[in-house]
Write a structure and sequence with these properties.
The protein is an alpha+beta fold and 242 residues long. It folds into two domains: 142 residues; 47 residues, no CATH class.
Length: 242
């Protein structure tokens, strides 16, 4: 007998004997498991509602038509009013990084948002996007010393990560990755409480609706306490004249 052909009756044919492939029921066939995927969707919804945290979600209203393509941003962009939504949070607080400039504490968040819940809260077909901001309003509502919720800016949105969120190849939740938000007086956001940002120049232009409470000016302080160039060299700037 050959190692590759069946030589008995019936007529010899390629071994193993040929047959029609994939005639049996396949559990992972998405035409057959719609009910099971509905069960997983409801499982995600229940877990998020039971163990999730309520956040205040701010949609970034930047538009392509309003953006300055030279700088890649919309100078007058604003954020919409916050919407309360429950999400699953995996929070890495005080993530310390060492760089050549020193130590950086950069909080990171991984969040899970049910897709249909996001549609209900934000609007049909809406998706989280990079630049959106959310605050951990429930987590931070009883902090001591007048502190409040931390703010995070979305950096990545995923609908597919088979190891975490796509059992039976279904799509049930958004997987969101975010970094601690650095507030810079964007209209629609108030910034974190007890976290006043320092500015050297009191006449820096701002977007309409933005506020800045800091009144210190490095140029004035230098003239008064270091060296007054204008009194000695007729210069009105610490950087000299040109």
């Amino acid at each position: 007998m050959s190692d590759y052909f069946y030589v008995g009756n019936p007529t010899p044919k390629f071994y193993p004997l040929s047959s029609t492939d994939n005639e049996c029921f396949r559990f992972t066939n998405k035409n057959n498991n719609a009910c099971e995927r509905d069960t997983y969707s409801n499982y995600w919804r229940e877990q998020l509602n039971l163990y999730g945290q309520q956040v205040s979600y701010y949609v970034n209203n930047t538009t392509l038509t309003g953006a300055d393509m030279l700088y890649g941003e919309q100078p007058a962009q604003q954020y919409s009013s916050p919407v309360q939504i429950v999400v699953g949070i995996n929070l890495a607080e005080n993530a310390i990084l060492m760089s050549k400039y020193g130590l950086m504490s950069d909080d990171e968040v991984t969040a899970f948002i049910h897709i249909s819940s996001f549609y209900v809260k934000i609007g049909g077909g809406a998706e989280p996007k990079s630049g959106d901001v959310f605050s951990l309003s429930e987590y931070g509502n009883d902090r001591p010393g007048g502190r409040g919720a931390n703010y995070y800016q979305v950096t990545q949105r995923l609908d597919q990560d088979i190891a975490q969120i796509n059992p039976l190849a279904g799509h049930y939740v958004w997987l969101i990755k975010a970094k601690r938000f650095e507030y810079s007086f964007e209209p629609g956001l108030s910034g974190e409480q007890v976290n006043q940002q320092v500015f050297d120049d009191t006449v820096a232009a701002g977007v309409s609706g933005a506020t800045k409470n800091y009144t210190y000016d490095a140029d004035i302080d230098t003239r008064n306490n270091v060296f007054n160039y204008s009194a000695h060299h007729n210069y009105d700037s610490v950087y000299g004249g040109y």
